[in-house]
Design goal:
The protein is an alpha/beta fold. It is about 30% helix and about 10% strand.
C-alpha cells in the first residue's frame, strides 16, 4: 500500500534554496554540533590510580622474560591508561555566525536538490485534529519545522509517532541532516528566509 505524500503549498518558492556550500564546511558544522551535544565527563585511571600491588611482577634477572615493574603498568590488562580522557569539561567548539548560516543554507539546498524539502499546506489540517494532521503529513518519517504555529495544531501533530517537531529559530545543520525528510510550515519558511537573508542576497564571486 503506497504511503500518502505531504499536502504541500506552492505559495512559497523553494528554488531560493539553491546555494552550493563546501562539503568541508558541512562536515565541520556537523562535527561541532556533535561534539557540543555531550559533556566531556569520560574518565579513565592512570597507573597511579589503579588499586594493585606496587611490587614487581617477578625478579629483574634470571627468568628469561622481559623486565617488568608493577602490574599497574599500561602494558598489562587492568593496568592504567596512557593519555586517556581525564573527566574534564573541554572548551566547547564553535562556528562563527556566517559559517553557521552558510552551513544551514547548504544543507537545505541539498535537501531541496534531492527532493526531500517541501512546504506544508497548513490549511489542510482542519480543526487541529490528529486524524487531519496524519492525512496532511502522511505516514513517512519526517521532521516538521514550525514557527509560532497554533499550539492546538502542534499538539495534534505531536501525537504522530513518525513526526519530529523542530523550531525554525533553533534549526541547525545537524538537526537537518538527522531528518530523512524536512517539511516547513509557511511561517517557518518566512522565518528561515529572514535568518538566511545575509547569505541569500550575497553576490557570488
Amino acid at each position: 500500500m503506497a504511503t500518502k505524500k505531504v499536502q504541500t503549498t506552492t505559495t512559497q518558492d523553494l528554488s531560493i534554496f539553491n546555494k552550493e556550500v563546501s562539503p568541508s564546511l558541512l562536515a565541520q558544522a556537523i562535527y561541532v554540533y556533535q561534539e557540543n551535544s555531550h559533556v566531556g565527563v569520560s574518565k579513565v585511571k592512570t597507573r597511579g590510580e589503579i588499586n594493585l600491588t606496587k611490587h614487581k611482577v617477578y625478579k629483574q634477572k634470571g627468568t628469561g622474560n622481559a623486565r617488568h615493574g608493577a602490574k599497574s603498568a599500561p602494558i598489562f590488562v587492568g593496568g592504567g591508561v596512557v593519555f586517556g580522557p581525564r573527566g574534564l569539561d573541554l572548551k566547547p567548539k564553535s562556528l562563527n555566525k556566517k559559517m553557521k548560516i552558510k552551513a544551514l543554507l547548504g544543507a537545505l539546498s541539498l535537501y531541496h536538490k534531492e527532493d526531500r524539502l517541501s512546504i506544508l499546506d497548513t490549511a489542510s489540517i482542519k480543526d487541529s485534529s490528529t486524524k487531519s494532521a496524519l492525512k496532511s503529513l502522511g505516514a513517512d518519517k519526517l521532521s516538521l519545522v514550525h514557527f509560532q504555529e497554533d499550539p492546538k495544531t502542534l499538539k495534534a501533530i505531536s501525537n504522530l509517532d513518525n513526526i519530529t517537531l523542530l523550531s525554525a529559530n533553533r534549526l541547525n545543520v545537524y538537526k537537518v541532516v538527522q531528518s530523512p525528510k524536512l517539511v516547513l510550515t509557511p511561517s517557518a519558511y518566512t522565518h528561515l528566509i529572514a535568518r538566511l537573508k545575509s547569505v541569500l542576497t550575497a553576490k557570488s564571486k
